Amino acid sequence: MSLMPMIGRARVLRMWGGLLDMSMDGSPFIDKTPISGLYFNGGWCYGGFKATPASGLCYAHLLALDEPHPTAAAFRLDRFKRGKMLDEKGVGAQPNLQ
Questions:
Q1: Were 77 and a residue from 7, 31, 52, 87 both cysteine, which residue would form a disulfide, CB within 3.0 to 4.6 Å?
Q2: Is 87 exposed, middle or buried (0-12, 13-18, 19+ CB in 10 A)?
Q3: Which of 4, 86, 72, 70 is nearest to 40 (CA)?
């Protein structure tokens, strides 16, 4: 406001229109893809910025050894296909309710 006081009179309606980068169970993916040499770390919903140190460790382990870190073993890309969705209560909003 001190730099642009005329903005104070603007009427702004806050809203969001677009895709949500969320998985259906609210948990991330840390896994290698079916494409050789392509790995994925995403779908963090609302908590990714808080989990960056741990996800970095797990992702580095995956890249270096080509196998998931024990902490991230459940965060595979095929968990929905296998019927192994994660049920972690209190981890954030459910994308199906957005």
A1: 31
A2: exposed
A3: 72
What is the distance between the alpha carbons of residues 82 and 96, in angstroms, rounded to a whole number? 20
Please, are residues 63 and 39 in contact by the beta-carbon 8 Å criterion?
A: yes
pLDDT in tens, 1-58: 677 787 777 777 766 666 667 777 778 899 999 999 999 998 887 666 777 888 899 9
Residue of 97, 92, 98 lying closest to 28 (CA atoms): 92
- Please check whether residue 96 is in contact with residue 22, taking contact to mean a CB–CB distance below 8 angstroms: no
What whole-number distance in Å separates Cα of residue 37 and Cα of residue 83? Answer: 26
DSSP for residue 32? E
